[in-house]
Amino acid sequence: MREGPDLAPGARTLLEVDRLVEGCTACPRLVEFREKVSTERRAAFRDQTYWGRGVPSFGDGQAGVVVVGLAPAAHGSNRTGRMFTGDRSGQVLVAAMHRTGFASQPTAVSRDDGLVLTGARIVAPVHCVPPDNKPTPDERRRCSPYLGRELELLAPTVRVAVVLGGFGWVALLATLRDQGWSVPRPRPRFGHGAKVRIGHPDGRELTVLGCFHVSPHNTSTGRLTPQMVDDVLLEARRLAGLEPVTTETRM
């Protein structure tokens, strides 16, 4: 039986990719864990029904910028069904995206809270919550056709990728190499503020920007400040050729 990742290269739209992600059962360890979390739940969310499936990407279907995360959080995206929604990491990222003109509001609490992204799409190398927030290399590779197909469908508009953390950096560059992009060897090193321009044989260019992940581990210790996130997102906005941030830009 062919699984979602096997079908992803044939998806004609981003919505088709999303539906494949939602129904995916390709990684038994991840399926078991996402369902376990959804059944046991956290005390604060005991009365809520968890999403407990693959979490699709979210945002503008004609994005100039993709924001590449890691994987859904156990009681954030795995609960709400939307990337960077319902947890502390999402609070930091969406607030920054609002300040920099990508998000219609500074909060992300549920799938139906009215949040709209313009000019940006949040994607991930792995679409199911992993134990200890650590997907295996095989799980990342199994999930990669989703990211690959999304990048192909976004090809007419996407010009910049903002990568949150080293895992996403390695995963994105591997996916780009699989798609024929001229990823430098040795692979560029991840770091906050890292920048690498990558070309495609068809003449396209993608600028990849590194940003420390917006996890509490980084934000609560001061390793990553709101201004640092804003600076990377504003640079991405400029490189993608999007209009400067104004009150109207923030909707």
TrEMBL record:
<keyword id="KW-0479">Metal-binding</keyword>
<dbReference type="GO" id="GO:0033958">
    <property type="term" value="F:DNA-deoxyinosine glycosylase activity"/>
</dbReference>
<dbReference type="InterPro" id="IPR051536">
    <property type="entry name" value="UDG_Type-4/5"/>
</dbReference>
<keyword id="KW-0408">Iron</keyword>
<keyword id="KW-0411">Iron-sulfur</keyword>
<keyword id="KW-0234">DNA repair</keyword>
<protein>
    <recommendedName>
        <fullName>Type-5 uracil-DNA glycosylase</fullName>
    </recommendedName>
</protein>
<keyword id="KW-0378">Hydrolase</keyword>
<dbReference type="GO" id="GO:0004844">
    <property type="term" value="F:uracil DNA N-glycosylase activity"/>
</dbReference>
<dbReference type="Pfam" id="PF03167">
    <property type="entry name" value="UDG"/>
</dbReference>
<dbReference type="GO" id="GO:0046872">
    <property type="term" value="F:metal ion binding"/>
</dbReference>
<feature type="domain" description="Uracil-DNA glycosylase-like">
    <location>
        <begin position="56"/>
        <end position="233"/>
    </location>
</feature>
<comment type="similarity">
    <text>Belongs to the uracil-DNA glycosylase (UDG) superfamily. Type 5 (UDGb) family.</text>
</comment>
<dbReference type="GO" id="GO:0006284">
    <property type="term" value="P:base-excision repair"/>
</dbReference>
<dbReference type="GO" id="GO:0051539">
    <property type="term" value="F:4 iron, 4 sulfur cluster binding"/>
</dbReference>
<keyword id="KW-0004">4Fe-4S</keyword>
<keyword id="KW-0227">DNA damage</keyword>
<dbReference type="InterPro" id="IPR036895">
    <property type="entry name" value="Uracil-DNA_glycosylase-like_sf"/>
</dbReference>
<dbReference type="InterPro" id="IPR044147">
    <property type="entry name" value="UdgB-like"/>
</dbReference>
<dbReference type="InterPro" id="IPR005122">
    <property type="entry name" value="Uracil-DNA_glycosylase-like"/>
</dbReference>
